[in-house]
Specification:
The structure holds 2 protein chains of 2 kinds.
Chain A: H1 21-30, H2 33-52, H3 54-57, H4 60-85, H5 93-103, H6 107-110, H7 113-138, H8 143-162, E1 167-168, H9 172-177, H10 189-207, H11 209-219, H12 221-226, H13 231-257, E2 259-260, H14 268-278, H15 290-309, H16 314-338
Helix pairs in contact in A: 2-15, 4-10, 4-11, 4-13, 4-14, 4-15, 5-7, 5-8, 5-13, 7-8, 7-13, 10-11, 11-13, 14-15, 14-16, 15-16
Chain B: E1 8-17, E2 20-30, E3 35-39, H1 46-53, E4 61-66, E5 69-71, H2 76-82, E6 84-87, H3 99-103, E7 110-111, E8 115-116, H4 118-131, H5 148-161, E9 166-170, H6 178-193, E10 197-201, H7 205-211, E11 214-219, E12 222-229, H8 235-243, E13 265-272, E14 276-283, E15 288-292, H9 299-306, E16 314-319, E17 322-323, H10 329-335, E18 337-340, H11 344-347, H12 355-360, E19 368-369, E20 372-373, H13 375-388, H14 405-419, E21 423-427, H15 435-450, E22 454-459, H16 462-468, E23 471-476, E24 479-485, H17 491-499
Parallel strand pairs in B: 3-10, 3-11, 6-9, 9-10, 15-22, 15-23, 18-21, 21-22
Antiparallel strand pairs in B: 1-2, 1-4, 4-5, 7-8, 11-12, 13-14, 13-16, 16-17, 19-20, 23-24
Classes of the chains: A mainly alpha, B alpha/beta.
GO molecular function (chain B): ATP binding; ATP hydrolysis activity
Keywords (chain B): ATP-binding, Cell membrane, Membrane, Nucleotide-binding, Repeat, Translocase, Transport
Protein name (chain B): Putative Ribose import ATP-binding protein RbsA 1
Chain lengths: 339, 505
C-alpha cells in the first residue's frame, strides 16, 4: 500500500462492476450495516477515480494493479484480524515480512528454486510467530511489547542478512508469476492467493471451533478460561497464524518485486491495523470480520492509486488515511450505540 | 422553628444496568455530624448507591436533596464542589506522584494561575497528615512506596483538602491492622465532632456497633431498613435483614428419599492459605449441598478452587473417585464439572455473542468434525438446552446481553446442561436475578438434581441455602463449623453459627 503506483499507459475503458439489484438482493439482506457502509465508501472511491481519471483509473490493467498491490498487505491483514479479535496485537508483521523475504532470497536459498523460496518464507514467518506466541502465551508478556521486540530484532536480522543490499531473484519460475500478463485460472496469481487466504480466513473465523475460541478469548478471556478453553494455547496458535500470513505475504512480495529487501514491509503493521479497524474490528477484542478488514485494505489501496493517478503526493495520502480512520471509528461508534 | 433538614436526603433512587436493576427505589437520609452505616451483601447495591452519591453514576429516577435543596450530581466534580468526598475501597491514587501531589491533584496551590507552589502544597499536606495522626508520612514520598494503610490516610487527606461536609468510606478497615483501625475510628470521631457526616460501609458488624449512629440495610437494590439505631439494634436483626428474604419464595419439594449411591464429587482436606482450611465434603448424584456463610467465610473461593480456577495449598478434589489435576479448569471440565460463577458477566458470558454461542462454547467438539462447526446442529442443541430451561425469549440467536439476569443465568446453566456435566457448582445463583424470577430458577436447579446432577451451592442468602439444599455446611472464617440436613436447620440456628464470636446481643 505504500509503494508508488505507475499506471499502465494503454487505456481500454472497461465497465466497472455495477450493482445488479436482482442478484445482489439476497446477499445485501444478510449483510450488516457496517459492511454496507464500507462497500458504499469503496463505491464512492471508484466513482471518484472514474470521474477524475476515467481513462486511466478504470483501465483493466490499473484495476488489476490495485488488487495486486492489495494482495500483499491483504494477506497480512487477515492474520492481523485474527490476532486483534483475540484481544492481542502484532506489531512485528512488517518486520517479519522483511526478514522472511530476505531469508528466502539469499543465494543459498535460491539454489533450491521455487519450492526453496516458498518454503523458507513460510517457515521464517511461522518461526517468528512461534517466538511471539510463546513469549505472549506462556511468558505472560504483553503482546504490544513482545511483538515490538520482534519488530526490532527481525528488522535488524534482515539488515544483517542483506547488508542493506537488494537481493535479486534469479529463479525464472518465481519471476514468471510476477509478470504483468501472468494469469492462473484467468486471475493474476497474487490476487488469487489473496482471494484464497481471504476465503479460508473467513471460513476459519466463522465456521470453525478455532474461530469461536478466538472470539471467546478476545471477548472475555476469564469467561473463556472458566468455560474450559485453553486460552494460552489458543493465543500461541494465533501468533503462529499471523506469522504464517506474513510468510505468505513475503513470498507474494518476492514475486511482485523480483527481489528481497530488508526495507520490505515497512509500516505494514500500521496499515494492517488501520485496515482492520476501519473494517470494524474492535481493538479491545471479541469482534471483527474478515470481510470488513479486506474491504478496509481495498479502500486504502484504492485511495493510494487514485491519489497517485492524480499526482498527489504521499503526504496528502497519509493525511487522507488518518482522516478516514477517525471518520470510520466515529461512524462505527454511532451505529454501535444506536443498535 | 422548622427542624433542620438532613444534610443529605436521597429518595426513590433507581438505577438499572442492562439485565439488572441495581437500585430499586432507595431512600437514604444522612444528618450532619453522624456516622451513618450502610450494610448489605455483595451485590445488594451499596457500590451503585455510593457511586450515585459521588456523581459517578446518574440515577434513572429519584431525588437528591443537599441541605434541603434539590441538586443534580452530574459528575464527581459537582459532588466534590458540594462537599461530598468518597474514599473508594480500590484507592484512586496515582502511584507515581508524591503524597502532596496526590492530595492536591486537580486543585494545586498555584502562583500566577499555573505555576504549582510545591512548598505550599507540601506544607498543607503535612498539616493534614498530622491532623490524621500520621505525621510520619513524608509529603514528598511517592504514593506507590507507601503501605496500603498509609495510602488510605493519603486518600483521606485528599478528601479533607476540600471543604468537605460528607465523607463516604467504602470498607475503610478492610486493609488495616487493629491499631490502625483504632486510629481510623479516632479520625472518624474528630470529623463528626466537627460536624462532618460520614457514610461508613463495612461488613464488620462489631465496627458498626462501635462507631455507628444509624444503620441503613440494603438488599437486592432496596433499603430493607432505614436509619436503625446502630448501638441498640440486635445483631441478629441486622444480619437477618441482610441475609433474609423480603419475599416468601416457593422452594421446590425435596425428593422423598435422600439420594444414595456413591458420591460423584469428593473434596478431601482442601485448603488455601488465608481463605479456607481443611474442607471435606461429598456430593452424591441428585443431591444439592449448600454452603452457608457470611462474606469473608471463603464461600466463592471454595467453589473456584474445586473447579480448578484457583490452586489449592493442600488437599484433593475427586470426581467419581479419581483425583483431578489441581489448578486446572480444563481437567475439571473434562471430568464433568461446571461452574456458574458469581460474576456472570465478567466470568461466564461472552456479552457480544448470541445465546447460542454462549451455550455451545464448552461443547463445541460435539457438533464439529475436524474443527468444522455444523451450525445447524449447534443451533438445534442450543435451542433444546435453552428450551429445557424455559429460557426467554425462545430464540437462541439473540445477543446474550439483551437477556434479563435470570435468563442470562439460564444461558450459563444451559451451557453445562449441553455439555452433560455431572457436578454443577452454583455461586450465588440468584445474584442480579429479579426477585420474581428466582422461584423458577430454584425449580430448574431442583429438576436438574432430580435428573441425577450433583449440585454444590453457595449463597449469601441463608433462606436460599436452607430452601434449596438437601444438606448444608455452615462456614465461618474459612472453616466448616456445622453440617446438617437442611430440614434440621432454621435461619436463626444458621445465623447463630455464622456469627459465633461476634458480639452477642
Amino acid at each position: 500500500m505504500t509503494q508508488p503506483v505507475s499506471p499502465p499507459r494503454d487505456s481500454i475503458t472497461d465497465k466497472v462492476p455495477q450493482d445488479r439489484p436482482s442478484a445482489w438482493r439476497g446477499l445485501l439482506a444478510r449483510t450488516d450495516v457496517r459492511t454496507l457502509s464500507l462497500l458504499g465508501v469503496l463505491a464512492a472511491l471508484i466513482l471518484i477515480g472514474g470521474i477524475t481519471k476515467p481513462d486511466e483509473f478504470l483501465d483493466t490493467r490499473n484495476l488489476q494493479l490495485v488488487l495486486t498491490q492489495a494482495s500483499v498487505i491483504g494477506v497480512v491483514t487477515v492474520g492481523m484480524t485474527f490476532v486483534i479479535v483475540s484481544g492481542g496485537i502484532d506489531l512485528s508483521v512488517g518486520a517479519i515480512v522483511a526478514l522472511a523475504s530476505v531469508w528466502a532470497t539469499t543465494v543459498a536459498t535460491q539454489e533450491y528454486g521455487f519450492a526453496g523460496i516458498l518454503f523458507t518464507a513460510v517457515v521464517v514467518g511461522v518461526g517468528c510467530g512461534l517466538v511471539n506466541g510463546v513469549l505472549i502465551a506462556y511468558g505472560a508478556m504483553v503482546p504490544f511489547i513482545a511483538t515490538l521486540a520482534m519488530l526490532a530484532s527481525a528488522r535488524g536480522l534482515a539488515l544483517q542478512i542483506t547488508d542493506g543490499k537488494t537481493q535479486i531473484v534469479t529463479v525464472p519460475s518465481v519471476l514468471d508469476l510476477g509478470e504483468r500478463d501472468a494469469y492462473v485460472l484467468g486471475i493474476p496469481p497474487l490476487v488469487l492467493v489473496f482471494a484464497v487466504v481471504t476465503v479460508i480466513g473467513w471460513l476459519v473465523l466463522n465456521r470453525t471451533t478455532f474461530g469461536r475460541r478466538t472470539v471467546a478469548v478476545g471477548g472475555n478471556p476469564e469467561a473463556a478460561r472458566l468455560a474450559g478453553i485453553d486460552v494460552r494455547r489458543q493465543r500461541l496458535y494465533l501468533y503462529l497464524l499471523s506469522g504464517l500470513c506474513c510468510g505468505i505475504a513475503a513470498f507474494l512480495l518476492i514475486v511482485l518485486s523480483g527481489s528481497g529487501q530488508n526495507t520490505n514491509g515497512n509500516l505494514y503493521e500500521l496499515d494492517a491495523i488501520a485496515a482492520a479497524i476501519i473494517g470494524g474490528t474492535l481493538l479491545t477484542g471479541g469482534r471483527g470480520t474478515i470481510t470488513g478488514s479486506v474491504l478496509g485494505v481495498l479502500i486504502f489501496t484504492t485511495i493510494t492509486n487514485i491519489f497517485a493517478l492524480n499526482n498527489l503526493q504521499s503526504d496528502v495520502q497519509q493525511i487522507a488515511k488518518g482522516a478516514i480512520i477517525v471518520a470510520a471509528v466515529l461512524v462505527q461508534r454511532r451505529t454501535a450505540s444506536t443498535t | 422553628m422548622a427542624p433542620e433538614p438532613p444534610l443529605l436526603s436521597m429518595s426513590g433512587i433507581t438505577k438499572s444496568f442492562p439485565g439488572v436493576r441495581a437500585l430499586d427505589g432507595v431512600d437514604l437520609d444522612v444528618l450532619a455530624g453522624e456516622v451513618h452505616c450502610l450494610l448489605g451483601q455483595n451485590g445488594a447495591g451499596k457500590s451503585t448507591l455510593i457511586k450515585v452519591l459521588a456523581g459517578a453514576h446518574q440515577p434513572d429516577t429519584g431525588e437528591i436533596r443537599w441541605r434541603g435543596e434539590q441538586v443534580t450530581l452530574r459528575s464527581p466534580i459537582a459532588a466534590m464542589r458540594l462537599g461530598i468526598a468518597t474514599i473508594y475501597q480500590e484507592l484512586d491514587l496515582v502511584e507515581h506522584l508524591s503524597v502532596a501531589e496526590n492530595v492536591h491533584l486537580g486543585h494545586e496551590p498555584t502562583a500566577a494561575g499555573f505555576v504549582v507552589r510545591g512548598k505550599a502544597a507540601k506544607e498543607s499536606t503535612a498539616a493534614l497528615l498530622k491532623r490524621l495522626g500520621h505525621p510520619e508520612i513524608d509529603p514528598a514520598r511517592l504514593v506507590g512506596e507507601l503501605s496500603a494503610a498509609q495510602q488510605q490516610i493519603v486518600s483521606m487527606a485528599r478528601a479533607l483538602s476540600h471543604d468537605v461536609r460528607l465523607i463516604v468510606m467504602d470498607e475503610p478497615s478492610a486493609a488495616l491492622d487493629p491499631d490502625e483501625v483504632d486510629n481510623l475510628f479516632r479520625i472518624v470521631g474528630d470529623l463528626t465532632a466537627a460536624g462532618v457526616a460520614v457514610v461508613y460501609i463495612s461488613h464488620r458488624l462489631e465496627e458498626i456497633r462501635r462507631i455507628g449512629d444509624r444503620v441503613t440495610v440494603l438488599k437486592d437494590g432496596r433499603a430493607v431498613a432505614n436509619g436503625l439505631p446502630a448501638k441498640t439494634t440486635p445483631t441478629r436483626e441486622v444480619v437477618a435483614l441482610m441475609t433474609g428474604r423480603n419475599v416468601e419464595y416457593v422452594f421446590p419439594d425435596r425428593p422423598d428419599s435422600p439420594p444414595s449411591g456413591e458420591p460423584v464429587l469428593t473434596v478431601r482436606g482442601l485448603s488455601r492459605a488465608g481463605e479456607f482450611e481443611a474442607l471435606d465434603l461429598e456430593v452424591r448424584p441428585g443431591e444439592i449441598v449448600g454452603l452457608a456463610g457470611l462474606v469473608g467465610s471463603g464461600r466463592s473461593e471454595i467453589l473456584e478452587t474445586v473447579y480448578g480456577a484457583r490452586k489449592p495449598t493442600t488437599g484433593q478434589v475427586l470426581v467419581d473417585g479419581k483425583p483431578l489435576k489441581p489448578g486446572s479448569v480444563r481437567a475439571a471440565v473434562r471430568a464433568g464439572l461446571g461452574l456458574a460463577p458469581e460474576e456472570r458477566k465478567a466470568q461466564a458470558l461472552l456479552m457480544l455473542e448470541s445465546v447460542t454461542r454462549n451455550v455451545s462454547v464448552s461443547s463445541m467438539s460435539r457438533f464439529s468434525s475436524g474443527g468444522w462447526i455444523d451450525r445447524g446442529a449447534e443451533l438445534g442443541a442450543a435451542r433444546s438446552a435453552t428450551r429445557e430451561l424455559s429460557l426467554r425469549p425462545d430464540n437462541p440467536s439473540v445477543p446474550v446481553r439483551t437477556l434479563s439476569g435470570g435468563n442470562q443465568q439460564k444461558a450459563v446453566l444451559a451451557r453445562w446442561l449441553l455439555r452433560g456435566c455431572k457436578v454443577l457448582l452454583l455461586d450465588e445463583p440468584t445474584r442480579g436475578v429479579d426477585v420474581g424470577a428466582r422461584a423458577e430458577l430454584y425449580a430448574v436447579v431442583r429438576r436438574l438434581a432430580d435428573e441425577g446432577l450433583a449440585v454444590l451451592l453457595v449463597s449469601s442468602e441463608v433462606p436460599e441455602v436452607l430452601g434449596l439444599a438437601d444438606r448444608v455446611l455452615v462456614l465461618r472464617e474459612g472453616r466448616v463449623v456445622h453440617t446438617a440436613p437442611a430440614r434440621e436447620l432454621d435461619e436463626h440456628r444458621v445465623l447463630d453459627l455464622v456469627m459465633e464470636g461476634s458480639p452477642a446481643s
